[in-house]
From TrEMBL:
Its EC number is 2.7.11.1. CDD domains: KaiC-like_N. It is an enzyme of class 2 (transferase). InterPro entries: AAA+_ATPase, Circadian_clock_KaiC-rel, KaiC, KaiC-like_dom, KaiC_dom, P-loop_NTPase. Keywords: Hydrolase, Kinase, Phosphoprotein, Repeat, Transferase. The keyword Metal-binding does not apply. Gene3D superfamilies: P-loop containing nucleotide triphosphate hydrolases. This is non-specific serine/threonine protein kinase. The keyword Zinc-finger does not apply. Pfam families: ATPase (PF06745).
């Protein structure tokens, strides 16, 4: 005997992230609409909804007016699912008379008769099985049988009242293939979910969903990215940082480079974000790795999300400097994720970061670089909002975050592809400059919200042992412009040419 169904509990869909968006799932004994163009994942979500109910001992029914049972079984097998048990598929095939050309010309076989036979067949299945969860796929066929909007709305209302008397939670699928933008079901349904598929100029398709309405229920509004992979649909709820407040101790973390810590006023505060700006090759990634190594030395976990550089090359390059990132990874102190900007949506990236912070307890997070993050959403207009929520979330979790941006140009005026300096708590500026016939590098801190910092400019070198930072450059002016002029003090502050 199937387990008794708790009609006071919501009907969970079993779709990762979607139940969170819906506030726990569907209120039982109601009718819901899931709409979207073909290929957006409606059938997959519907099967997950029924399989979740069947696993809990509920009787579930899939009424198909468009796909055969074999096609549905094939879809299930592609995800590793087996249909059966408490889930029954009712394939509602058209009468054989529809295949007879003479019947098409007969006035005796009207759309009224066909619609009536379809409805009767559905009701017979409900009476026989008495399911608690029902999927009707799809409304396009019923809309065509109804012929006009008035009869279509009346038919949906009749189905709604019938299902409510039998205690069924019903999910209607609509593939939006009708020429008319008929919104009749929107006013009838208890909730409406809309699935969308976007095709960027380059890269994989992007899918997102939105809860259009949900009567009497708080839900997470706005668009939520989702993907279809083996195992079903995964939804990445839009990140709302205010929902993730935690209490943590505010300490200062150091880089193990004393001169760099002095420049930063003693270190960087936990739960803050640091933006490292500079042209290509100035050592932005290396600076963040210094803090990753320092975190590992304290026994803390770190996570790096690398957009621009191939991980194998980064591991080899840093190994020659004495940074054993592979060893830290093997010991579980570091997670390195290669991010393919063309294949990942912003919502999925935020989900990856959250997983490292929530599950792996990473306390140092590196995003290298924001140029790659921007490339992940070239047609998105809300990059700043995405970054704002992500940084606020990380700050509230007590994670120390480092972000890099490669600026355009090498010397002189620099342009950033995206300006988020106002979001970061600390901004570190790296520059090339020419002095005494050599190209040198300079570092300065132009902003630090939490505490004081040096207002000096220091030279630094990339050596076989990592970063080496020199004394303040007090004998030059115009270093940030790239071509400084020598003032009193001569070479004061410059690092020696033969410095290791």
């Amino acid at each position: 005997m199937p387990a008794p169904v708790d009609l006071t509990a919501k009907a969970a869909l079993g779709v990762s992230g979607l139940d969170d968006v819906l506030g726990g799932g569907f209120t039982r004994n109601r009718l819901y609409l899931l709409e979207g163009n073909p290929g957006t994942g409606k059938t997959t979500i519907a099967l997950q909804f029924l399989l979740t109910g069947a696993a809990a001992g509920e009787r579930c029914l899939y009424i198909s007016l468009s796909e055969t049972e074999e096609e549905l079984s094939e879809t299930a097998r592609s995800h590793g699912w087996t249909l059966g048990g408490g889930l029954r598929i009712f394939e509602l095939i058209p009468p054989e008379s529809l295949l007879d050309a003479e019947q098409h010309q007969s006035l005796l076989y009207s759309s009224d008769l066909e619609l009536g036979e379809t409805t009767k067949a559905i009701f017979d299945q409900i009476e026989t099985l008495k399911p608690t969860r029902v999927v009707l796929d799809s409304l396009s066929e019923i809309r065509l049988l109804a012929g006009d909007s008035l009869r279509y709305r009346r038919q949906i209302l009749a189905l709604k009242h019938y299902f409510s008397r039998h205690g069924s939670t019903v999910l209607l699928l609509d593939d939006l293939t009708s020429d008319r933008a008929d919104k009749s079901v929107h006013s009838v349904a208890h909730a409406v979910l809309r699935l969308e598929e976007l095709a960027p100029s380059y890269g994989a398709e992007r899918r997102r969903l939105r809860v259009v309405k949900y009567r009497g229920q708080r839900f997470r509004g706005g668009y939520h990215d989702f993907c279809i992979s083996t195992g079903g649909v995964r939804v990445f709820p839009r990140l709302v940082s205010l929902e993730h407040k935690t209490v943590f101790r505010h300490d200062r973390v150091k880089s193990a480079v004393p001169e760099l810590d002095e420049l930063l006023g003693g270190g960087i505060e936990t739960g803050s974000s640091t933006l490292v700006l500079g042209p290509a090759g100035t050592g932005k990634s290396l600076l963040t790795i210094q803090y990753v190594m320092a975190a590992a030395a304290r026994g803390e976990r770190a996570a790096m999300f690398v957009f621009d550089e191939e991980l194998g090359l980064m591991l080899e390059r840093t190994r020659t400097m004495g940074f054993d990132l592979a060893g830290l990874r093997d010991r579980g102190l570091l997670t390195m994720t290669q991010v393919d900007a063309a294949e990942l949506s912003p919502g999925e990236f935020a989900h990856l970061v959250r997983h490292q912070v929530d599950e792996a307890q990473a306390k140092t997070v590196v995003i290298d670089s924001l140029n790659g993050y921007q490339a992940a959403m070239p047609e998105e207009m809300a990059l700043i909002l995405h970054m704002h929520e992500l940084l606020q979330y990380l700050n509230r979790q007590g994670a120390t975050t480092f972000l890099t941006i490669a600026q355009h140009g090498l010397v002189g005026d620099m342009q950033s592809p995206v300006d988020i300096t106002y979001l970061a708590d600390t901004v570190v500026l790296l520059r090339y400059f020419e002095a005494l016939g050599q190209v040198r590098r300079a570092i300065s801190v132009v902003k630090k919200r939490m505490g004081a910092h040096e207002d000096t400019i220091r030279e630094y070198r990339i050596t076989g042992n990592g970063l080496q930072v020199g004394a303040p450059l007090r004998g030059f002016q115009g270093v940030l412009r790239g071509v400084p002029s020598l003032v009193e003090g001569g070479e004061a502050g410059l690092m020696e040419t033969g410095a290791p």
